[in-house]
Amino acid sequence: MSGASRRHNLITVNIAAELYAQLRQQPCEVYTSDMRVKISPTGLYTYPDVVVACKEPQFEDAEIDTLLNPTLIVEVLSQSTADYDRGGKFEHYRSLDSFQEYLLVAQDRCHIVHYIRQPHHTWVLSETHLLSDHLSLPSLGGELVVSEAYAKVQFDEE
Fold it and tell me: Structure pTM?
């Protein structure tokens, strides 16, 4: 989605930069919202805020602009998309065998929901509201430092 807020952009860039720095020497690639993802089993095309593909990225065609095998997907929640990101879109993403982790990141407060795929296609949910937390990202062999994800982001006073 184009025209995202300042907070949305800061969070997206912060997360992409942190993941890129950790994965630079790994067989993973980090992309931002211009990389389209095709959910082949359902036919849906999406533009996640941040997506990571590990091993050998697979693409739909020679244009190399549509990723088929995301490992981790990050959606920064907007008021207009939050329900879909949590529900219908996540259902589509879960149909991908390569998809292992999902992060839903609030932009109006410190809050990250983290889903990790378990054997037999079950998912474990954890969440944090603490800037001091570090989220382990087992599919990448890395972590997300929550304070880094929210660097320079100012929340409205309550």
Answer: 0.95
